[in-house]
């Protein structure tokens, strides 16, 4: 049963994070007029699909990412290549309206052609030898034209529907939208948790045994009104005061049964490991704050937690990058799908609240990692767009394709190594 719960939790976490990220790309792409032939969750063989309008929505077997195919983004490969034999249907202007790649059709007056040259991005044409006269012909592709494959019509994008021909700001928004939606997901999750759990106050709910608070004489129901020289109105005031006092002995004033009492207290210094590469020194009083349910405080709390999570993950990423140059880098610093599954298995046992909190952190991590300036990632492709905006011309297409391909190979190699490392760590 535990195994089944872990599997379901992993599928939900993975599916939500990737879906939100890729939906962000598609949301802005479609508003820029960019055609999106496919929206995929997972990689590898297709296990489920359905078509809505011009987009095919697919779920694929391997839980190692997802993608949105955008027309003219330089990453998609057209299904027709030189040397292939296909059938075409043309209109009265001799423009191709359908390129037929299967036998599941009912078209009449079609022509067979051996493709010699073709261009589905810039020139938008097919040139080849037709069967009926064995002569070489060049056919332009009509504005409304389709690939006919597996009984489905897949529209061929005209220039004004291609990523390549959009303005730099539209490209930037489309690429940045994936990480942006991950950040928004984190915000929504933290705000939702704050509404559900309530926001902490300066009142005491529980006191941990043996803690500085217990040793000082703090009790459940006390309201902290002063810590050292700091007046206390809410939990944030307590956190700020403790961070300044650190582990020095100080005075703690509480309100108990309508009267104020003062105690001596010394916060405890604790080293907390925040990520695999980053630890923080914290000072704890050792109590759990009481909570309240209000209308606006959960929104502020969610914003604060999102910013804190962003700072935490950003610092961890910088530490990881720095470790490459100091020789301290280890693949243990990274988690692939296997590592994420193992973490889900651990976190889900502690309850749904912790799983949601961890998913919020993972969403920030996914957003920030995708903004790294690696060519195959969103951040790397954004650099090309910034170059285009500054110099008023796009990067050389061959150079961009080569750089992105190298980046993709690099990311794939890293993913394989991380996955193998995770398997060795957790299962061998």
From TrEMBL:
PROSITE patterns: PDZ. PANTHER family: MEMBRANE METALLOPROTEASE ARASP2, CHLOROPLASTIC-RELATED, REGULATOR OF SIGMA-E PROTEASE RSEP. Keywords: Hydrolase, Membrane, Metal-binding, Metalloprotease, Protease, Transmembrane, Transmembrane helix, Zinc. Its main location: membrane. Its cofactor is Zn(2+). CDD domains: cpPDZ_EcRseP-like, S2P-M50_PDZ_RseP-like. The chain crosses the membrane at residues 172-196, 312-331, 351-372, 402-420. SUPFAM superfamilies: PDZ domain-like. Its EC number is 3.4.24.-. One of its GO terms (molecular function) is metallopeptidase activity. SMART domains: PDZ. The gene is rseP. Residues 191-254 form the PDZ domain. It comes from Staphylococcus succinus. It comes from the Bacteria. Coiled coil: none annotated. The keyword Protease applies. It is found in: Cell membrane; Membrane. This is Zinc metalloprotease.
């Amino acid at each position: 049963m535990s195994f089944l719960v872990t599997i379901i939790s992993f599928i939900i976490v993975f599916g939500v994070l990737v879906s939100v990220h890729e939906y962000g790309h598609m949301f802005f792409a479609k508003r820029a007029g960019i055609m999106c032939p496919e929206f995929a969750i997972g990689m590898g063989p297709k296990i489920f699909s359905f078509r809505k309008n011009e987009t095919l929505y697919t779920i694929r077997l391997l839980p190692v990412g997802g993608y949105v195919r955008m027309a003219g983004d330089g990453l998609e490969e057209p299904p027709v290549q030189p040397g292939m034999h296909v059938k075409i249907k043309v209109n009265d202007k001799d423009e191709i309206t359908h390129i037929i790649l299967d036998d599941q059709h009912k078209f009449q007056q079609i022509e067979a052609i051996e493709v010699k040259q073709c261009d589905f991005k810039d020139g938008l044409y097919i040139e080849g030898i037709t069967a009926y006269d064995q002569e070489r012909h060049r056919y332009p592709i009509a504005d409304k034209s389709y690939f006919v494959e597996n009984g489905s019509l897949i529209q061929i994008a005209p220039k004004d529907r291609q990523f390549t021909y959009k303005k730099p700001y539209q490209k930037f928004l489309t690429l940045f939208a994936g990480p942006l939606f991950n950040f928004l997901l984190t915000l929504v999750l933290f705000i939702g948790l704050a509404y559900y759990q309530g926001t902490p106050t300066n009142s005491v709910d529980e006191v941990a045994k043996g803690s500085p608070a217990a040793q000082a004489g703090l009790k459940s129901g006390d309201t902290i009104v002063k810590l050292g020289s700091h007046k206390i109105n809410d939990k944030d005031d307590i956190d700020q005061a403790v961070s300044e006092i650190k582990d020095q002995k100080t005075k703690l004033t509480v309100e108990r049964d309508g009267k104020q009492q003062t105690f001596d207290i010394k916060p405890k210094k604790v080293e907390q490991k925040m990520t695999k590469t980053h630890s923080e020194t914290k000072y704890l009083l050792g109590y759990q704050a009481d909570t309240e349910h209000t209308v606006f405080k959960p929104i502020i709390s969610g914003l604060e937690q999102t910013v804190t999570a962003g700072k935490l993950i950003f610092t961890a990423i910088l530490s990881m990058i720095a470790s490459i140059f100091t020789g301290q880098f280890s693949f243990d610093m990274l988690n692939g799908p296997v590592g994420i599954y193992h973490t889900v298995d651990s976190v889900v046992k502690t309850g749904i609240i912790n799983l949601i909190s961890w998913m919020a952190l993972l969403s920030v991590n996914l957003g920030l990692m995708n903004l790294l300036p690696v060519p195959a990632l969103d951040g790397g492709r954004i650099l090309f767009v910034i170059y285009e905006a500054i110099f008023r011309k796009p990067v050389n297409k061959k150079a961009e394709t080569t750089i992105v391909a190298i980046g993709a190979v690099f990311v794939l190699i890293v993913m394989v190594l991380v996955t193998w490392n995770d398997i060795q760590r957790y299962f061998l």
